Fold these 4 entries.
Entry 1:
Amino acid sequence: MTERTTADEIIEEMEAKATHVEIVPPSYVVGQPFIAGRTQFPQKVQAAFFTDSGNLLQTFIYMPPRKYVKGFASGKLEYGVYRKDDILLFLYNHKGGAWNIAPFHRSFVPKDFQAVIAANGDGRLPLRMVLVDARTGLVKAVRDILLNKAVTGSLVQHVGEQSDAEFDQQDFNRRVNLLVTKGAERIIQNCSARGADKGE
């Protein structure tokens, strides 16, 4: 009886350890690793709107030049929202860089982390932007901006119309790639809303 109880206790302890998953949150501190223990990332721009952690935009660039980092951190920044069917693109541009495109769909955010799709009391959305060196994994710049009312309204409307039902990630990516091949300048000309942050 004692041996069985001991064995059961050991199994329960092993199962408890096996199901315990430690999630390492990203860091938004300049000079610190974006994800602890990770040193490299693919070059990309990704956005996550209406999450329980806020609205986030993450840019991973391989060895960004000093001018690029400075422009990201404090220079004039232009942004816009483009919508075609269920595809939503957030675009931004700053001094020292070209237009960057971040596709977004509500399905990108797990349901447990989704927040209410609504503007703040002043009709604007806060957006936290982080620039990471894709070669080292270190945070190079962090910037917090308030999106204007027009862009906020477009995001609230378009994301609210996106449905998780029958979402096909591969088809979504294919259609996004077709749009991107037309060039960011053409896309930005057809945005549903645009705005700018003057920086410092």
Note: Residues 26-197 form one domain.
Entry 2:
Amino acid sequence: MNEALDIFQAYPVPWQIGRTLFELGELKRGEGKIKQAGEYYSRALSEFERLHAAPFVRKTREALAQLGSK
């Protein structure tokens, strides 16, 4: 997935960048790497906020909150 992120950043497509960052967060959370998951989720949140993508802002904030409860 890092290759996908590199491609999307080269052709600025913020929606895909946000989605890829979110999925990387999911992957790291599944691996138990909570700090890394939080970093990816935070970066995804920034992209979604910039796009005013309210449903994905909410979803990403929920994912971050779940990390804090672990």
Note: The helical segments are 2-10, 14-30, 34-51, 54-68.
Entry 3:
Amino acid sequence: MAITKTVDIISVRYTKATTVPVEEPDTVWVDQVITIDDPDDDQLPIVKHNMYRLFADSDVSNEEQIVKDIFNAVFTK
């Protein structure tokens, strides 16, 4: 069997810019799980958890396509 890669988005949160208690810009949070698996390999699966904290000026060019899509949906006008 072949090795498979699955990308699951666990949650997406958006927070509006604040000044109190701390100044922060508009932020998008993306919680993601990447699973690499092969049913014929006893050492797999490998599971990696990612949490992205993205701002309007974040560089997402090297991220998974789903993260780019979420970023663009939130920050592109």
Note: The radius of gyration is 16 Å.
Entry 4:
Amino acid sequence: MNQILNSIKCSIIGTIVSFLGAWAGAEGTSKNWRRFLIPFALAGLAYSQLQSFWVLTIMFISVVFSIGYGTPSEE
């Protein structure tokens, strides 16, 4: 039963993360959805599975997501 609940939890978080990634890439939306909420959701999922505070290092992904492609944008 515990394995089923973990699978459901991972599926829900995965779906939320994929929608946040797609929505942040849409025109007229803030990229902060991708930069901060995706690493936060992944860190929460990893903490629930591993019970270790080392998973908070996943939040450093937000730095990578903030770098961009290196090309100037119109924003």
Note: The two ends are 48 Å apart (CA to CA).
